[in-house]
Design brief:
elongated, disordered C terminus, Rossmann fold, 15 strands, 2 domains
Length: about 375
């Protein structure tokens, strides 16, 4: 991460001059202040995430008390404040770049999928209806919700507290449209990327976020059930472990993770037989690029349309034990017949339930 610039007295003075004028000439003066501080104007998401408005108010309060730029102590204090906000902005912009890139990629995926064959798979929440909470007031998170099919089914079943997370703005706009058509209205804009919709006693919070970032906003032992339909297969070994630890943290004791993941059976279970794997990926419009980032694991970096798209993980029984046992005992079904995905390709999907309790033995269902 690059280091923030050291601010001169002239830069501090000019920045304070522009900050004082915010309110009468908000747009232009705000841009000028940001250009002095950061070299460019900020994206709204970055500005919100670093608390830039609070920084501005703090500077204005200090200025109202009287700032003497000949006082070395005051200048040192202002330089520290400016350097701190600049550091936060640098970190936030790097994160925003990753988030935006992922969002753009999944916008393309969801947009292309909507024009192709409809999936014939049973919804995960229908397949595992027996694992859902009996209490309709339970908190359920739909992690990687896409266009919200599982979310809408849960709401139809009367569940009252849902959190639906996805990085794709395109997919979430589709979900929001479904919510509004079903009688939900906007109740609260929590921040730039999260908003809550309400219908009677039912709440649905829609979050545009990377999965790990979204869970960072959730308190320990807050969630009764997490639904993750095909969203836990795009990280390397280290990040997948971290993801599972976060799922365990936010789940209540005995809380459930209901998940589906890609199976190694999609690659003939022979990851060393590159011709078969290459044929499969080419059918999906992709080509293998590298395994170097995650050696020894069932993951591949793949390209589509000449751009590096994603790391994709294919799970086998060893993977299920390796990752899901971090949360607790699991029961997963071996894939049998392939199903039709929205992308138009077929896939063997592993589905199952993990319980947040490590006192029982793990097993693979037949």
């Amino acid at each position: 991460m690059k280091k923030p610039a050291q601010f001169t007295i002239d830069q501090i003075s000019e920045c304070l001059f522009h900050l004082k004028k915010i309110g009468t000439e908000r747009s232009r003066t705000a841009d000028n202040a940001e250009k002095i501080l950061f070299g460019h104007t900020l994206e709204a998401e970055v500005r919100d995430s670093v608390g830039y408005d609070a920084f501005v108010q703090k500077m204005l309060a200090l200025d109202a008390q009287g700032i003497d730029l000949k006082d070395k102590n005051q200048v040192a204090m202002l330089r520290a404040e400016f350097s701190t906000i600049a550091s936060h902005v640098i970190e936030a912009e790097e994160k925003y770049k990753v988030t935006k890139s992922a969002g753009d990629r999944w916008n393309t995926v969801h947009s292309a999928a909507s024009k192709k064959t409809k999936a014939n798979r049973v919804l995960l929440v229908d397949e595992y209806a027996h694992a859902l909470p009996q209490d309709k007031s339970s908190v359920i998170m739909d992690l990687g919700c896409g266009k919200g099919k599982d979310t809408m089914r849960l709401l139809e079943q009367g569940f009252q507290n849902l959190i639906s997370v996805d990085i794709s703005q395109y997919a979430l706009e589709d979900l929001i449209q479904k919510l509004q058509q079903s009688g939900f209205s906007l109740h609260n804009r929590n921040n730039g990327t999260s908003q809550t919709f309400k219908r009677g006693e039912q709440d649905c919070t829609v979050m545009q976020s990377l999965l790990m970032d979204a869970m960072g906003h959730i308190k320990d032992s807050k969630i009764d059930t997490i639904v993750a339909a095909g969203s836990l297969q795009f990280d390397n070994h280290k990040d997948t472990q971290a993801l599972m630890r976060e799922l365990r943290r936010i789940l209540k004791p005995q809380g459930k993770l209901i998940a589906s993941v890609f199976s190694t059976r999609d690659t003939n279970e022979q990851f060393n037989q590159k011709p078969q794997l290459l044929k499969y990926l080419q059918h999906a419009g992709r080509s293998i690029q590298s395994r170097k980032l995650d050696p020894g694991y069932n993951t591949f970096n793949t390209r589509a349309n000449d751009e590096l798209q994603e790391m994709t993980r294919y799970y086998d029984e060893i993977d299920c034990k390796k990752y899901f046992s971090i949360i607790g005992p699991y029961e997963f079904k071996r894939p049998t017949a392939p199903i039709q995905l929205r992308s138009g390709k077929t896939s063997h999907i592993i589905t199952g339930v993990v319980t947040n309790d490590k006192t029982k033995l793990v097993k693979m269902m037949t």
